[in-house]
Amino acid sequence: MVLGIVGLCLTFFYGIGLIPAIVALALSPSAGREIDASAGTLTGRSQITAGIVCAWVAVGLIAFIAVILLIIAIAAVAQG
Q1: What pLDDT tens digit does each residue of the chain (80 aa) get?
Q2: C-alpha to C-alpha distance for 33 and 9, rounded to whole angstroms
Q3: What letter does residue 11 receive in the DSSP assignment?
């Protein structure tokens, strides 16, 4: 969850939030398997879900910003 939130917070700093967001998405399946294998002694499934949601929002925002910047760059080149 922490990496997802950090990725979301750092999204607007030159897209550097993409790195922790991808790490969060990569680590979440193993954390889920660890919780499932613990036979109820470990909890935190909702935290994993919150981290995944934050990470995907960060990735989506970065992709959206990249597309907008690309459109602006193409428009600037076309004008001049």
Answers
A1: 899 999 989 988 888 999 999 999 999 999 999 999 998 899 999 999 999 999 999 999 999 999 999 999 999 999 97
A2: 27
A3: G
